[in-house]
Amino acid sequence: MFRPLSPAVAVLCAAVATASVVMAGPAAAPAVQAPPNLAPYAATPQEVVDRMLQLADVKSTDVVYDLGSGDGRLVITAAKRYGAHGVGIDIDPALIAQSRANARKEGVDGLVEFRQQDALTVDVSPASVVTLYLLSGANLKLRPTLQKQLKPGSRVVSHQFGMGDWVPTRTETVTDQRGTSRLLYLWIIGPP
Ligand SMILES: C[S@@+](CC[C@H](N)C(=O)[O-])C[C@H]1O[C@@H](n2cnc3c(N)ncnc32)[C@H](O)[C@@H]1O
């Protein structure tokens, strides 16, 4: 039923097939979206870190998540001072490496871990305390996850930025060592 191709037609077909593969190029890779930048890096002064953890009433039984953890100071301080477990999340690999080195230096690497991940994709259900120093828009994006996944009695403390109309349990102004006023917000998750 099929007649064999003449050698000239076969060569032409092979050339056309090769050319179409070359011209189309390899199959396009699916677009990978960079994680959103929820805030530029700026470290919370240590005295403000201390006050945030006091405000959250951190204890050794707590699991503290810092979403956008910078150099790791929130979770490292929670581990060192209170014996709490901690998880720091940041998109910046250099800050994650620095946090791990800081945790080792402070002798709390058995209590804390640092993950390079987009904070918007984190399952926060293991946390009993969440700390934030992110822009208001980022807090608003995180708010439904915090309200859905955190257990009643969990505490959320934010440095400087609120959560829209989610009324805080408490607010406080702290003056850092350079004389700058820092606003702190505390929310305690209520019963479902
Ligand atoms: C203002 S700094 C706060 C650092 C630290 N929490 C503190 O208070 O010292 C914000 C951090 O969020 C990180 N960040 C920005 N976008 C992020 C994202 N999508 N997911 C995780 N971390 C992010 C930045 O790399 C930066 O380290």
Brief digest:
With 192 residues, this protein is of the alpha/beta class.
What's the SSE pattern? HHEHEHEEHEEE
Number of helices: 5
- CATH first level: Alpha Beta
Q: What is the quaternary state of this protein?
A: single chain
Cofactors and ligands present?
S-adenosylmethionine
Question: Could you list the spans in which at least 5 consecutive residues all have pLDDT below 50?
Answer: 1-25
Helix/strand class: alpha/beta
* Apparent shape: globular
Give an overview in words.
The chain is an alpha/beta fold and 192 residues long. The protein has a single domain, classed as 3-Layer(aba) Sandwich (Rossmann fold). It has 5 helices and 7 strands; from the N terminus they run H-H-E-H-E-H-E-E-H-E-E-E. Strand 2, helix 4 and strand 3 form a beta-alpha-beta unit. The termini are far apart. The chain binds S-adenosylmethionine.
Helix-strand layout with pairing:
Layout: H1 7-24, H2 46-55, E1 63-67, H3 73-82, E2 85-90, H4 93-105, E3 112-116, E4 129-132, H5 136-149, E5 155-159, E6 170-175, E7 181-188
Helix pairs in contact: 2-3
Bound molecules: S-adenosylmethionine (SAM).
Residues 35-39, 41-44, 66, 68-70, 73-74, 89-92, 95, 118-120, 133-134, 159 line the site of S-adenosylmethionine.
Give descriptors for this structure.
5 helices, seven-stranded mixed β-sheet, 34% helix, binds S-adenosylmethionine, globular, Rossmann fold, alpha/beta, disordered N terminus, 192 residues, 7 strands
